[in-house]
Amino acid sequence: MRLFTLLLGFALAAAGQEVPWQAKLQYIEACSCDLFCPCYFNDHASHQGTGAHSCTFNMGTRVLEGKYGDVNLTGMKFWLSGDLGADWGTKGKADWLVVTFEPKATQEQKDGLMKILGKLYPVTWGKVDFDTSEITWTMAPDGKTAHAKLANGKGDMKLTRAGNADPNRPAQVTNTKYFAATWNSPFNLYYSDHYYKGFSKDYQLHHANGFVITVEMTSDGKRVTSSAAPKKGD
Q1: Element (H, E) at 5
Q2: Where are the beta strands (DSSP E) in the chain?
Q3: Whole-angstrom distance, CA of residue 135 vs CA of residue 150
Q4: Is residue 57 part of a domain?
Q5: Measured between alpha carbons, how far is 222 from 113 in angstroms, rounded to an integer?
Q6: Which residues face 63 on adjacent strands?
Q7: Strands 21-31, 93-101: parallel, antiparallel or unpaired by DSSP?
Q8: 41: cis peptide before it, omega within 30°?
Q9: Residue 107 belongs to what H/E stretch?
Q10: For residue 228, is it within any domain?
Q11: Are 174 and 186 in contact (CB under 8 A)?
């Protein structure tokens, strides 16, 4: 019941006095739009090849640095699958969402992270479900490919860097805000092959939109302050 109550309030501020929180998140993300997301420049998505105003997505995410009150979130991995639908940009309403946590995540970590995500994605979801699975998250040393996978077989993303004038550097979209993030890096652009099959949902996309990005979200609107020296590659 506690988790059910949480999901109903996913897009709302935490009840009562808010504790300080911050999160630095690194995403491997893919959706059903063509490269690059029209959502960032319009009030609707555009489903690949159809013109439909929907966006079925997968996001494999790791927490590089994070804390909600006294709850440490650093090192967590989670996965978001869903559909933004047609009304997220005009009415603040999205269709459905499945949040997958790794088995080692505590209830306190889940609660804290969900409250942060409710700030980062300020929409109301028509339906939210929760799942559990180990999550694989890898970037090639040269940055040309990225891969994220749910061990339960429900989701997989394979990203291949989009071509550019300099093949050793990513094509990027800069000076563009990621949803309600406090700060975000440029969008590094990729083509994606990805799928999700679970909770009566089944979609599979080829040569669709994808990107890798680092996002920060904080309760005070400032940059994330690290409590430890950053690891190589972060």
Answers
A1: helix 2-8
A2: 21-31, 56-68, 71-72, 77-83, 93-101, 124-132, 135-139, 145-150, 155-161, 172-173, 183-184, 187-198, 201-218
A3: 5
A4: yes
A5: 18
A6: 25
A7: unpaired
A8: no
A9: helix 107-120
A10: no
A11: yes
pLDDT of residue 52: 56
CA distance 210 to 149: 15
Place of tokens 């440029």: 186
In a domain, 78, yes or no: yes
Instruction: Report the number of distinct structural domains present in the chain.
Output: 1
Q: How far is CA 77 from CA 53, 161, 188, 196, in A?
A: 29, 23, 20, 17
Distance between CA atoms of 220 and 198, rounded to whole angstroms? Answer: 36
Residue 226 is given by DSSP the state P
Return the structure tokens found at 178: 């990621």
Cα 165 to Cα 55: distance, rounded to the nearest angstrom? 29
Quote the tokens at residue 161. Answer: 């860097």
pLDDT, residue 17, reads 55
Residues spanned by the domain of 86: 2-10+33-218
Is residue 231 a part of any domain in this protein?
A: no
Predicted local confidence at residue 87, as pLDDT: 79
Tens-binned pLDDT, residue by residue, of the chain (234 aa): 334 334 444 444 444 457 999 999 999 999 998 888 777 776 656 655 556 557 899 999 999 999 999 999 999 999 999 998 887 778 889 999 999 999 999 999 999 999 999 999 999 999 999 999 999 999 999 999 999 999 999 999 999 999 878 888 899 999 999 999 999 999 999 999 999 999 999 999 999 999 999 999 999 999 998 765 444 444
Residue whose C-alpha is closest to residue 85's, from 45, 27, 132: 45
Which amino acid makes up residue 207? H
Place of tokens 């927490």: 63
